[in-house]
UniProtKB/TrEMBL annotation:
It holds the Pfam family DDE_Tnp_1. It comes from Paractinoplanes durhamensis. The chain crosses the membrane at residues 51-72. PANTHER family: H REPEAT-ASSOCIATED PREDICTED TRANSPOSASE, PROTEIN YBFL-RELATED. Residues 135-365 form the Transposase IS4-like domain. The keyword Membrane applies. This is ISAs1 family transposase.
Length: 410
């Protein structure tokens, strides 16, 4: 990266506001600087408000809890002129239709990459404990139930979630008459662009992604796949279920009690050395995780079967149990928060890239609060809403997040 000095200039700076300080490339944690690379789709002759200012305002508004395009505009409109000036507006702010018409025309995948890189640059270094630690990425899709496209279809988005930081590394929209399977390849091309490569990354996914192409794609990039196996792969499922699990010693067993429930999880793993091995490319180990739950005196037992492309010396049973549970993070810590706290399913965005753009803003807000140490996203958004100047200070400086241990580390 170049070592030349760059001046961060907020557009439309009032004449009585002093010029900002000159910063080096090492200080490029400012949201304004990060957003400069986003292409403006408007005709240059009709640009009244800078794209960087509108985007920064939208990010700040969603960080403060705004759930719709109208709420984004209201958040800006209700601030004082000092906040307007700091965002790059002088005298007036854009109308809701102006914000909406601009944002829905942006490239959602590009914006997702830009904001993911910005969050990663701000995240505190993860404290690595143990030689087997890996970056674990959970993959899952979500339907924005309130959003509809012009043909009436619901919007379906597939995301890649960094379980160590809470940052969504990439997100793609499922095309018409398709599903998550073809979207996996473009999704991980975007992930590779954000991370630099897929080397040593472990991807955890549900049974839908037990696909030969997925395993080969990740292997070609130096990554690994841990995937559940169910009825969509009947031969592989039958092979895994028929393995001599009764003869396999327990690798690790955990017990948890809470919310009126008792749960025991037993992990067993083995390497199949028979000719042909497992009937799935790159698979090194077969895994069975048995869950026994007791709720109000009623006990249920279920077994889940998985494969992983890491050999036993790199993936012990305690690792496997932790990694398997990390798949739930994208559902519990991202999708649930988007629905309940940021009311995604109630948002009836339906034009162009509007649903995907706003999902990206929600992902950014959740990731930002996670790396800032928040455990309650709803509380964090309320705090940000009551302290707009503190919020702008935080997103325009290189203030580091709180260093913490990674809960998925071994």
């Amino acid at each position: 990266m170049s070592s030349s000095l760059t001046e961060i200039v907020l557009p439309h700076r009032p004449p009585d506001v002093p010029c900002p300080a000159v910063v080096t490339d090492g200080d490029r944690h400012s949201l304004f600087v990060a957003l400069e690379v986003v292409d403006d789709p408007r005709d240059p002759r009709g640009r009244r408000y800078p794209l960087v200012s509108i985007l920064a305002a939208a990010v700040c508004a969603v960080l403060a809890g705004a759930c719709t395009f109208a709420a984004v505009t209201d958040w800006v409109r209700f601030q004082d002129q000092a906040v307007w000036a700091r965002l790059g507006f002088t005298g007036r702010v854009p109308a809701s239709t102006t914000v909406w018409r601009l944002l829905i025309r942006l490239d959602a995948e590009v914006l997702s990459q830009v904001l993911a890189r910005w969050l990663r640059a701000r995240a505190a270094p993860v404290v690595v404990a143990g030689r087997r630690w890996r970056l674990v990425i959970a993959v899952d899709g979500k339907v924005a139930r309130g959003a509809r496209l012009a043909d009436g279809r619901q919007v379906h988005l597939l995301s890649a979630y960094d379980t160590s930081t809470g940052i969504v590394l990439a997100q793609v929209q499922i095309t018409a008459k398709s599903n998550e399977i073809p979207a996996f390849t473009p999704l991980f091309r975007l992930v590779a662009a954000v991370l630099g490569s897929l080397k040593d990354v472990l991807v955890v996914a549900d049974a839908l992604h037990a696909q030969t192409g997925h395993a080969e794609l990740l292997a070609a990039g130096g990554g690994h796949l841990m995937v559940a196996v169910k009825g969509n792969q009947p031969k592989l499922f039958a092979q895994l279920k028929a393995l001599p699990w009764a003869e396999v010693p327990v690798g690790v067993q955990t017990r948890e009690t809470g919310h009126g429930r008792k749960e025991t999880r037993t992990v067993k793993a083995l390497t199949v050395k028979t000719p042909g091995g497992l009937g799935f490319p790159r698979a090194e180990q077969a895994v069975r995780i048995t869950r026994t739950r007791t709720i109000k005196g009623k006990t249920t037992r279920e077994a889940a079967y998985l494969t992983i492309s890491l050999p036993a010396d790199q993936a012990q049973p305690d690792d496997l149990g932790t990694w398997a549970r990390s798949e739930w993070h994208i559902e519990n810590r991202l999708h649930y928060v988007r629905d309940v706290t940021l009311r995604e399913d109630a948002h009836q965005a339906r034009t162009h890239n509007g649903p995907a753009i706003f999902a990206t803003l929600r992902n950014t807000a959740i990731g930002y609060h996670h790396i800032d140490g928040a455990t309650n996203i709803a509380e964090a958004t309320r705090r940000a809403n009551h302290r707009p100047h503190d919020l702008i200070d935080a997103v325009t400086t290189g203030k580091p997040a709180v260093t913490r241990n990674n809960p998925t580390m071994q």
